[in-house]
Amino acid sequence: MAMVASDISRSAARPTVAGRALATYKLIGVEPISGACGCEISGVDLRQPLAADMIAEIMTAFEHFAVIVFRDQDLTPEEHKAFSRYFGEIMELPQAPTYGDHRDMQEVRREADEPENVVPSFENFHTDSPFLLRPPKCIVMRALDVPRWGGDTAFSNAYLVYENLSDGLKQLLDGLEVVYSGADIWSKNEKLPPEKRLRLRESHDLTPDQLTSVHPAVRVHPITGRKALYVTTAYFKHFVGWSEAESRALLAYLQSLAQQLHYHCRVKWQKNTLIVWDNRFTLHRGVHDFKFERRHLVRTTVLGERPLGPTDLRAQ
Prior knowledge:
Elements: H1 5-12, E1 16-17, E2 20-21, E3 29-32, E4 39-42, H2 52-65, E5 67-70, H3 77-84, E6 90-91, E7 98-99, E8 102-110, E9 136-145, E10 153-157, H4 158-163, H5 167-174, E11 177-181, H6 185-190, E12 212-216, E13 218-220, E14 227-229, E15 236-239, H7 244-258, E16 264-267, E17 274-278, E18 282-286, E19 295-303, H8 310-315
Parallel strand pairs: 4-5
Antiparallel strand pairs: 1-2, 3-4, 5-17, 6-19, 7-8, 8-19, 9-17, 9-19, 10-16, 10-18, 11-12, 11-15, 13-14
């Protein structure tokens, strides 16, 4: 059967996934997880130092898909940290429990006999630690123990959420800022019954002022200039210049958009699976649909830049 012109055009075009044309990879295998975000990368042994051209391809996939997954990576903590440093400087977090003697690693752990709430698994998609002046660039997380079924992590592409807004709402959000604060999470936790408390880090070196920041509601990638929604329920206080009631109403609508499945990918954990996700331009949440089994993940957190907004670009 002869191909019509439209068929020829489609066959010649580069495949589009996660909102962009798929790059060509020569040194690594890249398999998209969904049409919205995420890919699995094969052909890489993270126990070994990586060549510069392979690192460049991994970074291209990270920038495009925002969530990259490596399977069967049996790493020591030092190997885990060495790989993390390709993405930037490792940072500590004031609220997340540390992993053993490693102050620069965190753990997400739920024992088989513990309730779901010991892990700060927010009910909505969220970004980590937006209350910091320089929130994390990315999270590098590996599975030590996982349940046989369930316990996945889901991700929502904040680029796509923003890009599908109306022009009017984009214009409004481009000029908004958000107050985020983690200053009260320990006091709130102490007021809860012991069985309902989160597992938080017991002490940290930050002052209360360092636990509150104002960031743009729309975040701009510092290299590509691509815009994404940067509004999350976690640690949210209000929009600057808005009342709490007004702020919560808009927040609820924006959060509902992030829940839509066509923005998502979902990753099934296996022992020694390692995921790197861009904490700046995705939202994530754990899926606690398992009982009476252990789920133990360890992670490093990579320091990000101070969030850049559309008004910052106009000022340059």
